[in-house]
Structures are given as structure tokens and as C-alpha cells.
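Practice set, problem 2.
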Amino acid sequence: MHFWLMSGRHGPAIRNLGMAEGTAHRVARAVAIIRSDYAHPLRIEHLAEAAGMSPSTFHQHFRSVTTLSPLQFQKQLRLIEARRMMLSEGASASNAAYAVGYESVPQFTREYGRMFGASPVRDIKIAQAKVHASA
């Protein structure tokens, strides 16, 4: 079984996971930085340096590990956190947008709708209605 996994098309990726300083671990360092600082502008050079890679190599490996670019990853984190703030803390869409680093509420609303399929206000109303219906 191990031989089959290691010699298959995903073998290099699987071997890389086991290496102490493999690509996945190096990208994980950058992911940790993005997660802790998602509300601030993203500096690719800083992330690449943390991963010990050039910016172009970093982009390539980041996408191969996460299936997203660093900016897409940050955007998803921002939107998920904003949704959490609106649902659990009762934050308004504009307050949540600014809290997670958006400078424009219309931009936040567009990206939120693309990710969750509804505007922030509508999505939260739907989620709250589901909670009240199940209670």
C-alpha cells in the first residue's frame, strides 16, 4: 500500500508532507502569518521570505498546497470571519467588513455574495431563521 501511494501520481506531494522542512511545512508558516494577520494588507515578499522561497516560487507552491493564491486565501479568511462576527456577535455588515480589513463595503458585499450566495444582510437573516425554526 505504501509503495503504491509513494509511486503514484501524488507520490511527490505525499513524500513532501513527511519532510520536516518540506514545501507543505514552509507554506504552512506563511498560512499561519496570513491567519494571524488577515485584516491587514498582504505582503507577498514577507510571506515568501517566511517560507524561504522567492515570491514566484512561493506563489506556485502556495497554490499547489492550498489550491488558492495567497490573496484568495486571505479573502476567504476575511469573509468567513466577517460572517462569524455577524452571526455570533451581531455585528453589522459594515462593521464586520471594516473589522476584517475591507476598505469598501460595496466590495465586501460583492465578494460576500459570490462566496455565500447571498448578500450579507440576507444571508444572516436566512441563517437566523434556520436557527429559530430548529429551536
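Problem 2, part (b): a different protein.
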Amino acid sequence: MGNVFGGGGTSLDLSNGGTEVFIDVLMLAVSDLADDVWDYRFASLLTLQDQNVMGRGAVGFDLEDIAWGTTPAERARSKDFVLRATTLALSGHRWSELGYDPPFARDYLHQFKAMVESFVPADDTHLGGVFPGPDERAMASCVQHRILSALPHWEGCFLCTRSILS
């Protein structure tokens, strides 16, 4: 089983292990860059990709399902955040904290970055509840790992849930 991240007519099809690596390295960057309500909503979307909580092969999202904003300026700012976070992740930001060498992470991030760059966000007023709302944003940060998480709903960040299961 695998997971799909799609958008703009392309997709990033990842194995369960590949998904874990992709979300891990992206979440480290997002955690350090988030400073706006939308950023924390995107972080919440990433926390929902934790297969140790949600189930293996049961995650993924489409760029079309993200509420990018209702104005061109909001959509541009949101897209810029995702691109900045992806670029930071590509630099190997905080990878030493993972406890493993993230194989193929740069390939996944390059593919995702190209997908986001070519994606043209539309007005999000028609979207349902796929993208976490402002009240569902990931505002809590794991004290031990400094990673945004779904606390208090889950026990901790992705590194915490992984260590509990080990």
C-alpha cells in the first residue's frame, strides 16, 4: 500500500516508508518557519499524515483540497510558505535529529516542490472541511523535539509517537 500527494494533474506516489520520510523532513522545516494562522493550519494537515496514528497507507492529500486563501495575495503568501518550507527541508534542515538517514527525501521534496510551483491555487470558498480550519491548527509544539504537533489530541509529535511504538 502507498499514499498519494497530488496537485495540478501530477502526483507524488510514495510507499508507506517514503511517506514517513517525506512528512518527517517537511514537518521539521514547517515547524521552524510557521508564523501565521495559515502556516499552522498547513502544519496540522501534515500532522494528519502521521501513519503511526492515522494508519499505514491511509494518508495523502491533494493541493486542490487545501484552502490557499480567498484573495490572490493570500494564495500567493500561502504558496510561498509551502515553497520556502520545502526549500528549507531540501537543505537538510534538522535531519540529524531524525535518528536515520532519510533516503530519497531530496527526490521526494524536489518532486513536491515542482508540483507546488506549477500549481495555481483557486479561490477556496467552495472547499469543504478537508483542510484543517483555524481552530484545528497545530499550535502546540513538542517540548522535547520542538516540532509542531496535534497536542493535546495526540501524545506528542511524530518523533514521540514513533518512540512510543518502538
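Answer key, part (b): Residues 140 and 151 are 6 Å apart (CA to CA). Residues 2-165 form one domain.
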